[in-house]
């Protein structure tokens, strides 16, 4: 897409933002930001978690009212009081969480704004179906519009969300992390749709953590750091490292601080023909002490299922053999897995990894309480000492060990998850997408931590859909495709491109 | 870095008070302070002792309810469990089976535990929504009690049975002593034990708790059993104090108890709440009833007042957590 940059001199400015500022009690969330957007432009918006991206775009779609500054749309200053108002004026937003109504049909979701208008007394279903299929056609896709939304894949739901934004005739489309839950193939489809919209004159603000995607699709990119704008730059003047530097305000020598001394350690784990009904087929591999085994696969390839199966979370549909050391074991429940010193850093840390409304101490000590109690009473002294130790070791930034984990940054939350398993003395840690949704600076810290753990002799199974991450971190790489292993290779016997191809096509 | 704009203002103290967990204690004190000069005979030792004794009934049932609600469920069958265990337990005494009062009390607790187990099985093993499972149990238990005993009033209880509801031991009313024993055990369990932690974890996020090695099914099951046991204990105190069993025994109790627990700051979404809060919540509800009686306001108004107290308490709690009256337009 680098060649497709529009000439900004002749282009019309659709949106101009001047000195936009937003304060929350005790926090300056967006500080004096200027921004402009041309007709038919794809404009990347990047920055670390907490840099102010979300607050910024929420002022553009009317969710927040700015404290200072102007929003100028097509040369006219506008004041937005609600997302509905923004939609009427032509600014639409697709949130990361999509916000579709799961039990309604595709058509109803697309035409939702028309269904809720005050003057609509009787719904003309023919019209609704016609309009919604038209919008899908505009995006170059064809779905069954009468299908219930929750029957569709996340990728398709994403497209429907975009169609819904278009249905209210939007000229400025804001996409918040649209690719975070998509597989590589789906991302390409999404990009096709975005490019199609671009040719139709829609301007797009594209928020993403994945810089390679921003580089691929955007014309310009605006970088936010600590609530302020660092700059707006043409993509052709940028490299990924340069963006990273702008985002975190310092240069990092290597994104993946690889250590990679091939371990000579003993075998910790061996799988023989592990299968999960309809999901995994004859998975066999082994894991050595101190090794980082990378397992890469697209969304739906069976990554998370493999992680859950190893952790005993898939119940009775599992067949095959698991050996720990030389002993054949059966892992029936997470409780049993933890007892065998296996840990899982799950894909979705907010819903499966942490008890969000509880403190750091509560979360870290939960799996080890069975070892530190007398007749069921928790030995609080030992508990606090242990928790303090791991907060220090992992450099968890917090006000106290009682701080509620919901209020921690993504990176620090993930550290709490890791601390929990280190405290539980895990010797095998399964990590499913451990850096998802974590900003660049936080990612590097997590990578360093993973290396440290491996050096201490812990066996790590790193599962990810991001090839560079797997390629950059692992000693050995396994490619998973449709529930089967299609390749197992040492990192230095392969290259990123080959792995990427295998992930996408299985061949 | 995020810029902190910390401002001191004169409302800070008030804000802190409202934000603190002790709001509920403040409400109770406020109620007492306002009522004392206005309502005759309110501020007397006799009356306070009366309120405390009456409170033991709902507060006892509230102990089990607190466990269930923190674990993420609800128990609507409390009133039903109370009347069924009351009828059967009292029957063993009346029939001259040679069963002494302590054994009869234990039978009531045991019956409560069994009914709690059935609730637990419905919710945990059969995966029924707790609201429906315990609603069914509420009807089945009360229905059985009425069906078997034809809703008869039983009063020929042995004299000794009155000890649990009206007796005194070392100068203290026995029901208060029984309640305190249950209360302290429950308080310690929730605050200091592995089981207590597991209940909060299971109620906050069952999946995450399970993946952290918590046996969520067992924990939730036990919560319902505890609710059954405290319902049995409620039956003991109630039948002893009334010295009879009537067909309407414990009817509507579950709603008073849920109100008390919620007023006490326990979240109906689970994962949050304290046993002390539930006690204070029960005290507030009983005090309101007591004040209305002493002030000679129509008894038909009691329900309105209880409803208003619940409404107000929830509103304050929501404000405390920032769901309402928020300044930003989020």
Description:
The complex is a heterodimer of chains A (507) and B (330). In chain A, 34% of the residues lie in helices and 26% in strands. Residues 1-6 of chain A have low confidence and may be disordered. In chain A, a hairpin with a 2-residue loop joins strand 17 (373-374) and strand 18 (377-378). In chain A, the strands form five sheets. In chain A, strands 6-7-8-3-9-10 form a six-stranded mixed sheet, with helices on both faces. Chain A contains 18 helices and 22 strands. Chain A is globular and about 70 Å long. Chain A has helices at residues 53-60, 83-89, 106-110, 112-115, 125-138, 154-167, 184-199, 211-217, 240-248, 303-310, 334-339, 349-353, 360-365, 380-393, 410-423, 440-455, 467-473, 496-505, and strands spanning 13-24, 27-38, 42-46, 68-73, 76-78, 91-94, 172-176, 203-207, 220-225, 228-234, 267-276, 280-288, 292-296, 318-324, 327-329, 342-345, 373-374, 377-378, 428-432, 459-464, 476-481, 484-490. Chain A is α/β, with parallel strands linked by helices and 507 residues long. The longest helix of chain A is centred in the middle third of the chain and has 16 residues, at 184-199. Chain B is mainly α and 330 residues long. Chain B is 70% helix and 1% strand. Chain B has helices at residues 12-19, 23-38, 45-70, 78-94, 101-125, 130-149, 163-166, 174-192, 194-204, 206-211, 216-242, 253-263, 275-294, 302-321; strands spanning 168-169, 172-173. Chain B has a two-stranded antiparallel sheet. In chain B, a hairpin with a 2-residue loop joins strand 1 and strand 2. The longest helix of chain B is centred in the C-terminal third of the chain and has 27 residues, at 216-242. The relative contact order of chain B is 0.18. Mean pLDDT of chain B is 88; it is low at 1-10. The chains are: A alpha/beta (507), B mainly alpha (330). Chains A and B meet through strand 2, helix 11, helix 12 and strand 18 of A and helix 9 and helix 10 of B.
């Amino acid at each position: 897409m680098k060649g497709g940059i529009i000439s900004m001199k002749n282009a019309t400015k659709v949106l101009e933002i001047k000195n936009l500022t937003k304060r929350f009690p005790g926090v300056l969330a967006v500080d004096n930001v200027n921004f402009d957007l041309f007709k038919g432009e794809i404009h990347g918006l990047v920055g670390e978690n907490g840099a102010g991206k979300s607050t910024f775009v929420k002022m553009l779609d009317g969710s927040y009212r700015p404290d200072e500054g102007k929003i100028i749309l097509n040369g006219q200053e506008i004041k937005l009081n609600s997302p509905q108002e923004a939609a009427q004026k032509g600014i639409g937003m697709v949130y990361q969480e999509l916000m579709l109504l799961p039990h309604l049909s595709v058509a109803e979701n697309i035409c939702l704004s028309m269904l809720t208008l005050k003057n609509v007394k009787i719904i003309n279903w023919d019209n609704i179906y016609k309009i919604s299929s038209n919008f899908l056609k505009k995006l170059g896709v064809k779905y069954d519009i009468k299908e219930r939304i929750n029957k569709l894949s996340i990728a398709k739901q994403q497209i429907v969300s975009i169609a819904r934004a278009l249905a209210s005739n939007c000229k400025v489309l804001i996409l918040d992390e649209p690719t975070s839950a998509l597989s590589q193939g789906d991302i390409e489809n999404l990009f096709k749709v975005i490019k199609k919209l671009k040719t139709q004159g829609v301007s797009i603000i594209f928020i993403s953590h994945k810089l390679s995607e921003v580089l691929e699709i955007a014309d310009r990119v605006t970088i936010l750091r600590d609530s302020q704008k660092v700059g707006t730059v043409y993509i052709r003047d940028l490299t990924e490292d340069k963006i990273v530097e702008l985002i975190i305000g310092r240069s990092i020598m290597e994104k993946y601080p690889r250590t990679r001394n091939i371990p000579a350690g003993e075998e910790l784990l061996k799988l023989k023909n592990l299968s999960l009904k309809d999901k995994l087929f004859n998975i066999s591999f082994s894991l050595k002490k101190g090794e980082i085994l990378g397992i890469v696969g697209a969304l739906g390839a069976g990554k998370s299922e493999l992680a859950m199966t190893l952790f005993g979370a898939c119940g009775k549909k599992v067949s095959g053999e698991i050996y720990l050391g030389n002993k054949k074991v059966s892992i029936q429940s997470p409780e049993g897995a933890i007892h065998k010193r296996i840990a899982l850093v799950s894909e979705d840390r907010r819903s499966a990894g942490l008890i969000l409304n509880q403190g750091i101490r509560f979360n870290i000590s939960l799996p080890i309480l069975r070892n530190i109690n007398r007749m069921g009473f928790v030995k609080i002294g030992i508990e606090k000492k242990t928790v303090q130790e791991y907060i220090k070791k992992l450099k968890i930034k917090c006000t106290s060990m009682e701080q509620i984990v919901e209020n921690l940054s993504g990176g620090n939350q993930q550290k709490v998850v890791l601390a929990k398993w280190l405290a539980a003395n895990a010797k095998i840690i399964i990590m499913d997408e451990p850096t998802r949704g974590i900003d660049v600076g936080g990612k590097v810290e997590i990578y360093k931590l993973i290396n440290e753990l491996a050096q201490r002799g812990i066996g790590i199974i790193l599962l990810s859909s991001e090839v560079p991450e797997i390629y950059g971190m692992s000693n050995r790489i396994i490619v998973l495709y449709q529930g089967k292993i299609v390749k197992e290779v040492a990192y230095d016997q392969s290259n990123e491109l080959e792995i990427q191809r295998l992930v996408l096509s299985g061949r | 870095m995020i810029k902190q704009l910390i401002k001191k203002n004169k409302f800070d103290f008030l804000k802190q008070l409202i934000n603190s967990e002790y709001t509920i204690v403040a409400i109770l004190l406020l109620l007492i302070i306002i009522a004392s000069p206005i309502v005759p005979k309110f501020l007397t030792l006799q009356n306070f002792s009366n309120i405390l004794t009456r409170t033991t009934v709902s507060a006892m049932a509230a102990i089990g309810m607190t466990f269930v609600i923190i674990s993420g469920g609800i128990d609507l069958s409390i009133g039903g469990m109370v009347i069924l265990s009351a009828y059967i337990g009292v029957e063993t005494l009346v029939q001259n089976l040679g069963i002494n009062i302590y054994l009869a009390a234990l039978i009531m607790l045991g019956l409560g535990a069994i009914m709690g187990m059935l609730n637990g099985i419905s919710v945990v093993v059969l995966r029924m929504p707790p609201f429906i499972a315990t609603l069914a149990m509420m009807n089945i238990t009360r229905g059985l009690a009425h069906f078997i005993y034809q809703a008869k009033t039983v009063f020929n209880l042995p004299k000794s049975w009155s000890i649990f509801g009206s007796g005194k031991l070392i100068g203290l009313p026995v029901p208060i002593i029984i309640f305190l024993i249950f209360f302290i055990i429950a308080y310690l369990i929730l605050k200091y034990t592995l089981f207590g932690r597991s209940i909060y974890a299971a109620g906050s996020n069952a999946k995450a708790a399970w993946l952290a090695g918590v046996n969520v099914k067992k924990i939730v099951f036990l919560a319902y059993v505890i609710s059954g046991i405290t319902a049995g204990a409620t039956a003991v105190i109630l039948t002893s104090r009334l010295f009879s069993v009537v067909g309407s025994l414990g009817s509507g109790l579950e709603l008073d108890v849920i109100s008390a627990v919620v007023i006490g700051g326990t979240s109906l979404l689970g994962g949050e709440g304290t046993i002390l809060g539930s006690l204070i919540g029960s005290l507030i509800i009983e005090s309101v009833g007591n004040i209305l009686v002493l002030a000679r306001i129509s008894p038909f108004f009691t329900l309105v007042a209880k409803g208003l107290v619940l409404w107000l308490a929830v509103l304050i709690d929501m404000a405390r957590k920032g769901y309402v009256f928020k300044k930003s337009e989020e």
